[in-house]
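Example record for the data management plan.
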Amino acid sequence: MPVPDDLTLEEIFDRHIQILALTRRPSTIMGYRVTARRFLSFLRGQYPGLHQLSELSRDPHLLAWFRSLADEQPPLSAKTRSTRILLLRCMLDAFGQEGHSMAQQLIRPEDFPRVPIYLPRALSASDDRRLQEELRRRDDTMASALLLLRLTGMRIGECIDLSCDSLAEIEPGIWTLHVPLGKLHTDRLIPADEEIRQCVTRLLNWRDGDTLQAHPSSTGLLLPRSSRVWLYDKLRRQLAEMAQRAGCSEPVTPHRLRHTFASEMVRLRVSLPVLMKLLGHNSIRMTMCYVQVTDIDVHQEFHAARRNAITPHSVPALALPAIPEAGVPGILKALHAGRHLLELYRRQLKDNQTRRTVHLLDRRVMKVAAQVEHLGKAEK
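Corresponding structural encoding:
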């Protein structure tokens, strides 16, 4: 499809964003629009003679825009700057693929600011205990909803959108909570123990007597509301008040309950793949960001290892992973386990060059796994 030559920069950006709007979320499209508007406003102010994409260059246009992001007042966070650069790069790459005449590599990897990596925000064991005691002591809708958040690790938006029939018995004695479509466009089933079922039952009972249930936005939902934003804000405020009343040492937000749930599951020896499913993540890497290893955990693991230590100077035998069969399924399992170990090893490394080397090894193993999977399909 030929590209019109008489389009202005504004028309080119607006045309592309309209196409993106067919498949992207409104919040994502808003990010694209804000980035495009501010970038074009910068160009009009600093380089009024620039009218065509072919005239756009890395130096001075893009480099000057990067500096303007860094100098903006009030200062932008590294994450915000990185997001704007990423969105602009996506649009520029798309323009090149559409056939527009323009320079290559206008935005490079080194242009992205380093985003600070913070520790997981799980509550301390004492704060978590105090908060749960306060939530169980309070016998109302908000406390039960917040306790349900803590027991399941759901996102607050997922909890708000729970339906009245979300709790179901899939087999005799086996109950699950159906978590609706959330941040990653996926739904999932979370195992529901007795306390989770009690929370849902209490919410159903209270819902029948809540005057907000008649509101159209509450039809079929477990938590009555006048609006989604209203309920979101109310849950956050109630959690902050209950945490303060419980004597927690730090402010508590709904998302910190999710981090606390993840760290607790790891201490209870839940595997990372299972935890990934419980949290609704698409990758183990995201799940690892939620797991907190405290100083107490380090001491416990260390002393447990010392107690199990064998005689000095002896070399322990390397235990091979159990492979169910010497066929394609067994080989794939072994390769996936190897990739998981490589990722865990990479996270322990400090040297960036060594980390990149391990990453390249992981890519090779991934290609080998794809070839083995292709062999399995050929056999069938």
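Summary line stored alongside the record: The CA atoms of residues 263 and 292 lie 5 Å apart.
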